[in-house]
Amino acid sequence: MALFFNRISKLYASRNNARFFSSLPQSPCLLFESKALRQSPEGKIVNHILFDPTTEEKVYSKEKKLPKELDGQSLVGASQGWVASVGNKDLTVHITDLYKPCVSSARVISLPPLKFKPSTHATEVSLSTCDPIQGDFTVAAKFNECRLSFCRPYWDAKWTHIETADSPLPASDLMYSKRDKAFYFTSLKGLYMGALDLSNKKLKYQQLRLRNMPKIPEVGWEILDQCFMSKHLVESPSGELFFIKWYTQCIRTPCNNKEDKDGEYEMIHSVTKRFMVFREDGKNIDFCYTEDIGDLCIFLGKSEAFCLKASMYPGLKPNSIYYIGPGLGSYDLASNMVRPYNPPASGAPSLVRAPFWLHPTYPIA
Fold this sequence. Notes:
By secondary structure, this protein is mostly beta strands. It has one helix at about 220-225; strands at about 20, 30-40, 45-50, 55-60, 65, 75-80, 80-85, 95, 110, 125, 140-145, 145-150, 160-165, 175, 180-185, 190-195, 200-205, 210, 230-235, 240-255, 265-280, 285-290, 295-300, 305-310, 320-325, 325-330, 335-340, 355-360.
């Protein structure tokens, strides 16, 4: 297993009124872009452009040397602040803390190579620990839509793949429960909640029941029925489990500077319409709709979902969901109001293909 450390050079001089992410403890942030600055005798020098939701500002990381193991790899997921990547040729998998803003010596852990090329649009990664350097851990991933994969890097020389073609597919994001020490997901239609049982390497399913549904006019339900819905599971710092429905709607907007054969040109894009949050009620896999999660805020996107206490990170809005998917923004659960943010402007080609929320490096007790 390759574990190695690199030194950090001088701070990157900002020209875009962005600030440096240097204060501790670190707040959650969105990894938006990774830029190659120059080539050095030791390798490629990069830095990262991030979005800080506590200030709603663009921030820059320090300059860092890109480990050779990661050069040319595609980023496929993030969990607990660690980012997973896969080599396009040899299908080698790595996880690294390189992208954490305040990390000065990047660490890389090599995982067993895959035997197939992953479908990056469906990749999800979840770690059983926030510090895999300290000891044994398990990583679970969904590299395509018909199998679930996992391994224990300190013990396994290869991935274990569980085919799911004949069972309810794991359609929601993978999530590791610290409370139950299990990986969870929901089925394709959200009717079942699945768990990966590491003791016998099998999937277990239980019926998922949603109660106390929100009171929405019939026309409102008709609009939601036309939306795309994704499903997410997340655990709070105290061990509460939440099930989230994320509704996005396709919008057609005219584009005045282009014309098609009929004299009009339309742009189609997706916007967030609504979230529904359901709180676990006891141990019966019953979830009750709620518009009040108190001091908590939830982060959803291409990375593993996570939940934080807003009061621990001044600037975060309690009872809110921060999202990156169709657009970047926050959603107030009490008012059901969407607040969009302007994402950092994109310049030169980025080494990062998909934005990931990064869990804070230094959690506050």
